[in-house]
Amino acid sequence: QVQLVESGGGLVQPGGSLRLTCAASGILSIYTMGWYRQAPGKQRELVATITEYGHTNYPDSVKGRFTISRAKNTVYLQMNSLKPEDTAVYYCNLGSGPGPYWGQGTQVTVSS
Question: Which of 2, 82, 88, 102 could form a disulfide with 37, with the two C-beta atoms 3.0–4.6 Å apart?
Answer without folding.
Answer: 88
